[in-house]
Amino acid sequence: MIDFSLRADHPSNTKTDVVAVAVHEGQKLSWAAQDIDKASKGALAAAVKAASFAGRAGAVLPLFNLTGVSAARVVVYGAGSGNALSAKDARATGRALASCAVELEQAELTVFPLAEGAVDAMQQMVLGVSDATYRFDETKGTSTKPKPALKRVRFGMPEAAAKAAPAALKNAVAMTHGIEFTKYLGNLPANHCTPTRLGDEAKKLAKSHGLKVTVMDRKAIEKLGMGSFLSVTNGSEEPPRFIVFEYSGGKKGDAPTVFVGKGVTFDTGGISLKPAGDMDHMKWDMSGAGTVFGVMKAVAELKPKQNIVGLVVACENMPSGRATKPGDVFKSMSGQTIEVLNTDAEGRLILCDALTYAERFKPKAVIDIATLTGACVVALGSHNAGLFASNDKLADDILAAGKKMNDRFWRMPLEEDYQEALNSNFADMANVAGREGGAITAACFLWRFTKKYDWAHLDIAGVAYKGSGKEKGATGRPVAALVDYVMASEK
Ligand code: BES
Ligand code: MN
Ligand code: ZN
Predict the structure, then answer these.
(1) How far apart are CA 383 and CA 406, in angstroms?
(2) Ligand 1 near 349 CB (within 6 A)
(3) Ligand 1 proximity of 98 Cβ (cutoff 6 Å)
(4) Using one digit for the tens of pLDDT, what is the confidence trace for 451-482?
(5) Quick check: 234 and 201 in contact, CB under 8 A?
(6) Bridge partners of residue 473, in order along the sequence
(7) For ligand 1, atom 8: residue with the closest CA
(8) Measured from the CB, is residue 344 less than 6 Å from ligand 1?
(9) Does residue 471 contact residue 131 with C-beta atoms inside 8 Å?
């Protein structure tokens, strides 16, 4: 884990392995680049000119042994044409600078952000450094690569940003701890990351971070009457878990924010079996649960003065002689009955019982996070997660946090008109509607269980992981947005 901190010296006399300063398009030097240029008697500007450095955001140019500069390596980074870096550009810059330091095999990087928007840019750079240095090698056997050399990242903040910087840095660092934990759980294969393992990880996290946790087994889940949740576990040899995290930073009796995560540790589809292609992706079907773990970890580190509850519903969705069959009817904890027309629409079946359980906390708001529908991926692709909400203020707050952290959501409709498609002749509702508006009808199903509180549903099927290529793996989304959402209400 990288050690992040703030420092106060000037760019030119910073004793560090690599010092990073910005240059805009048109080879216009930032305040920090000017400081180095002055100390090196124009060597920085001359090098930038000789390299025809265009200053595009995300670009880096390493320079070595500038006279009059304490650090032996200066990396110039592009700052584009505006006065401030966008969240996206700042994150790309963080990634590029960290990769550069890793390639140069240096242990310490000191970054000087632009004067304008320095605090927000610093947060994104922290996330970018995490992106670039994160490794998953738990299940590598003999081919593990050496750990990145980069160990410490310092930020030299411009005067005007000095006051807000410490809290912002702390928040961003806690986000990376949460994100990296979420990625870790997601990237574990399903034979490692079973519901039992999630229960054990929950206890471990609670112990190390001072959280209260209750891990319930099948018997306890039966006792709660979670017949809908249990219907999904019928075909699986792996026992289910229901996990309740409680963080109490607020006063006793303060209404908590409740996060609920879908933790299907592997989704075969059940009897409504999925096709074989890319089925390995369904190890990430616990990414909503992983997000709850990540958020709880960050929250426990940041200690906001609020009460926060994290609920995780964990099971496998498997076919077998005992598995749920299409047409089977089950009674949910709410008393409402459900005709399971498609066993692959299992996420809503496990979430609905957790959403009913959430009522007992008399919550301020409930936010569920789930890789719920392929339809959401078709609608929004992989840049925005779907946001559905029964309350506009809650929706706006989540949208704002997502925008700020560049961990974006796009609001989708939640309207009664869509409910009709879930009608059943044999139960209070069916678990699927037609193909049309699949992400919306899934949200409408959940909506029927959330009438007693303000509720938001985040469909993260498109954003939780990258399914192919060099970066195949969990993304840790939307931990950053949700932690920012929690911390924004501290002010
Ligand atoms: N876990 C899937 C959703 C999913 C699809 C996540 C692709 C990530 C990538 C979910 O359980 C599912 O199978 N949903 C079905 C619902 C359908 C049967 C109504 C789907 O999207 O096809
Ligand atoms: Mn499914
Ligand atoms: Zn699923």
Answers:
(1) 9
(2) no
(3) no
(4) 999 999 999 999 999 999 999 999 999 999 99
(5) no
(6) 466
(7) 461
(8) yes
(9) no
